[in-house]
Hints:
By secondary structure, this protein is an alpha+beta fold. The protein has one domain. 29% of the residues lie in helices and 35% in strands. The protein has helices at residues 4-18, 21-27, 93-101, and strands at 30-35, 41-45, 56-61, 67-75, 78-88. It has a five-stranded antiparallel beta sheet with strand order 1-2-3-4-5, covered by helices on one side. The model has no long low-confidence stretch (mean pLDDT 95).
Amino acid sequence: MLSTEEAKQVASTILHQLGGRRFIAMTGARDFIAINDGRGGMHCRIPKMTGVKVNTVKITLNEMDYYDVSFGRLYAGKHTVISEHSDICFDELQTLFRRETGLATLL
């Protein structure tokens, strides 16, 4: 279990690897939560977009220092996992996000 500060640092690092403030501006991501179990991670929501089923993203750091990424949909209080990806390298996060959501992370 991580301390609160360590969990926030892991979440901040993930956000930075996604593109930081540009990622937030380009995608409209909001409701960021630092995950404080296992090795840490982050969860966020993205706005409803026409043709995009995904509105939640969960990225966690695994024991091999790669990321496990889950894309889901929260609707009427029910969360459905749409796709899951394991062992994603930090430099593949933006490409994976773009492929799964159709949203650009950078200009």
